[in-house]
């Protein structure tokens, strides 16, 4: 669990790759400084041809240039982060920090600066005396790194321009959320109505820290539950907040007359199975991706921005996520032992939760805009087409009725309402007849 947490942190750390690049640049510079190119050899025509003073002047110029470029790159990155936070959603900052292109570009610039600056200690100087001999190959590599950095700078500006476009931002969130749905949601989920309630004699296992539940691995909790002969029910879903000392898992045995289980092993297993962090992550949290897209839609409808079309775009991306969720069995995850006895219960979100999360706030903030209302009707229609049973379709139909009720009370122009009513009638007819 600690290894996974460290890996997730490093993937979003803007300093990790540049720090590694600094170490690699120092190692490469130290190694190349011992490589001498023989005069008259085939490589002699391709290495730096100037004197030792020329080489030092070149390295100083490269280091100065790269210092300016690094400041420029960091400034552009901060601007992109500020724009994403104020224009779209503060929950999108993590996506920009995890952008591998930004990390690699900054690493190349930092490596070039480090390589050139470290070379000043060896080029043209030996034992505090000026000398004519210097590692020409090492200086040539510094020149090549400069050209690479200039090409990378142009590519970085191109990439940054595209990465802050709203279409690219929403497409990134959609792809990441679909990946979580495909790979991290449990294959077998059960209806929340079958969730066993902890009996009065259940013993709580307290949370070991405060924060958000980032990941849950019930397979790590199953052996401890079998060994202690208990049923272990996690009390929080992925993405929910928990306070240190509050119940994180309830454990109980079949009857109150049985002796209470030993909690030491269960506490250790809970720490291994449930990871708590200071922020929400998208590792197993589908609702976090839905929340990001809904935030973009709501922010676009605010009076300060007043951009209904961006809200409609976010709704269309939400339709892809909801269609993928509607085609799966959602709910609690339940694990049994080899004999078939229930041992671990992990609460999960159902389709009703995702529908309300995706459309609830957008419906309340966009109920006065006919195009937003019709976009909500389209997303509900497409979601209903992917539902697995009639109960889910009736649930979607209920949200269609909520959209219509809000529109009827808000939109004053009857001409706008006519088209919305006709659209809603067609959706309801397809869903429930």
From TrEMBL:
It holds the Pfam family DUF2254. It comes from the Bacteria. The keyword NADP does not apply. The chain crosses the membrane at residues 12-38, 58-83, 104-125, 137-157. This is Putative membrane protein. Keywords: Membrane, Transmembrane, Transmembrane helix. It comes from Kribbella caucasensis. InterPro entries: DUF2254_membrane.
